[in-house]
Amino acid sequence: MGKGGEQGGDSGEPAAQIRFYTWEEIQKHNLRTDKWLVIERKVYNVTKWANRHPGGQRVISHCAGEDATDAFQAFHINPTLVQKFLKPLLIGELAPGEPSQDRDKNSQLVEDFRTLRKTAEDMNLFQASPLFFSLYLGHIIAMEVLAWLMVSYFGTSWITTLILSCILATSQAQAGWLQHDFGHLSVFKKSSWNHIVHKFVIGHLKGASANWWNHRHFQHHAKPNIFKKDPDVNMLHIFVLGDTQPVEVRKTPLPLFLHLPLPHDGSARILLPFLIPCSHTLLIPLGSWLDPPSVPDPTLFPADCVILFLESHWFVWVTQMNHIPMEIDSEKHRDWLSSQMAATCNIEQSFFNDWFTGHLNFQIEHHLFPTMPRHNFWKVKPLVKSLCAKYGVQYEEKPLGKAFIDIVG
Question: What is the helix (H) or strand (E) element at residue 21, kind and residue range?
């Protein structure tokens, strides 16, 4: 560090001295109490700012000591606006002799990926279709209304209950994919509008916390399948995943009641998907099953159980089919493209697959460009496959059925 230059200001004050840093120096600042990161060759000290970061302090901390340029561009729909928050945190720049990428990453691959992103922007692939999302919300509301009408006209017989349970489970699953769109800021041009609608959809249609979702899900996107950084694979007290984690668990003594039976070959045992809560505000009020005497018909409680069972399994299998069969390991400090491709695979495209998975069958494109509206993933897919082929990066795509089987395997 320590080479200086003159940096002029607009206030008439004496020019500040530019500090230059090497990657060796920057990589030392990756501690909980000392966090630096690099964006477009500029060095920022985010130690104090991390606790105020809207996306949560952990996601920004996971990039400490690294080049965070691609992650920064991936998560923010208006980088120019965010720059005003970064300006006070600026402490210097990379030394002139230092490469733009850290840890011997392939500079040409990184540059080609950024060119690809610019091409996607020029093709307007980051602009959402109001008609698509309006129709999508409309079909969710239509299913909720249909369930209401069934109860009104046919009562709560077992057959009616089973049918409306399937309808409401479907609407809940689709509402889950819709909140995912708003959470990733991929619908409106302004972040604030996305946040407002996201809180409504996930809070009132799903019964979950928007902040909780943001703080966990963005960590997953920043460091997919990375131990201690991706919450989705950081549940050692419940189950272990991949080839490396079981071996590490064996070396770490745990309380007796937390020990899980591990095969001698070190492979993982995965528990069945857990049920997750959901909110059916249009049909079954929360109190109707918390207070049994108030339930007009005993079939409503089984209905809620069936809805929970169907929707939670739908959610778990779809969200994990793209990641669980892929590489799960410790941090390897790959470039953005390579890290996402190692942990992510696609499911073959079809009208049903697109609808059933909420376009998460295009998981690769979604992970590379989280703020891109999902109806444009198919347009950028050929560009991504071409870039991967150029550098020998595996682009894995499989049928839906095989994806489910691979989870069990």
Answer: strand 16-21
Reduced to 3 states, what is the DSSP secondary structure of residue 225?
A: coil
Angular region, 238: left φ>0, alpha ψ -120 to 50, beta rest: alpha
The domain ranges of the chain are 20-104
Task: Summarize pLDDT for 117-139 with one digit per residue, the tens.
Answer: 999 999 999 999 999 999 999 99
CA distance 105 to 114: 14
- Give the residue ranges of DSSP H helices in 123-226: 130-154, 158-183, 191-200, 210-222
How many Cα atoms sit within 13 Å of 319 on the Cβ side?
Answer: 20
- Integer Cα distance of 255 and 253 in angstroms: 7
DSSP string, 265-282: T-----PPPPP-----TT
Q: Identify any residues that bridge with 35 across adjacent strands, giving them in sequence order.
A: 30
CA atoms in the 13 A half-sphere facing the CB of 155? 6
Using CA atoms, how far apart are residues 361 and 382, in angstroms rounded to an integer?
15
Handedness of CA 183, 186, 187, 188 (dihedral sign): positive
8-22, 267-281, 311-325: range with lowest mean pLDDT: 267-281
Give buried/exposed letters for 201-213 (b at 16+ CB in 10 A, else e).
Answer: bbeebbebebeeb
Task: Characterize the bridge pairing of strands 346-347 and 397-398.
Answer: parallel
The strand pair at 42-45 and 34-39 is best described as antiparallel
Number of C-beta neighbours around residue 143 at 10 A: 21
pLDDT in tens, 389-408: 999 999 999 999 999 999 88
19 three-class SS? strand
Q: Does domain 20-104 have CATH number 3.10.120.10?
A: yes
Please list, in sequence order, all residues whose beta carbon lies within 8 angstroms of the beta carbon of residue 52, skipping any fewer than 6 positions away. none
- In whole angstroms, give the CA distance from residue 126 to residue 354: 18
CA distance 294 to 300: 11
